[in-house]
Amino acid sequence: MSRWIEPVTLTGKHVVLEPLALEHDAALAKAAADGELWKLWYTSVPAPEQTRAYVETALAMREDTGAMPFVVRDAKSGEIVGCTRFFNVEAAHRRLEIGYTWYAQRVQRTALNTEAKLLLLGHAFEALKAIAVEFRTHFMNHPSRAAIARLGAKQDGILRSHQIGRDGAVRDTVVFSIIETEWPAVRAHLRFKLERS
User: Fold this and answer.
1) Which of 105, 113, 129, 173 has the most CB within a 10 Å radius?
2) Structural domains of the chain ordered from first start
């Protein structure tokens, strides 16, 4: 079956995004342990002992809904330092979301994340011809909200009582997007940030 989003490896100077595979689970567990990221109640980072199930779920999403999960590899060290994916794929409308993104604490707010977003957005707008790319985050995840805004995404709104979290708490979701006509300016902005880093 032909899919809108086929497996692809996206390579930059700082980061390599590779299609997620079952054999990545141990490396992802190690990455999540850097900063004990699973303890942040407003995120969906797996605890080390839950990484295998997390990977299996992501791969099932790939098969069932056309999502494309990636591992994030530090291009310099070769280490896997996180995870991200294209999902909420609406091929008929050429829309998708970038999310399930998390990084080992040591690489957060570095050129690696900026370049990863540049590669993902470039693939979405230039190869897939997307008309819009969304980002969503928990209302309480202020670092994530700030990071999304720094990309150049605009806040579309807040979905109140949108989801029930793993702890049973009801989540308000903040929705951001970048549309096709904004991509050239966002691309220039991200390239400028990379050159300065």
Assistant:
1) 113
2) 10-196 (3.40.630.30)
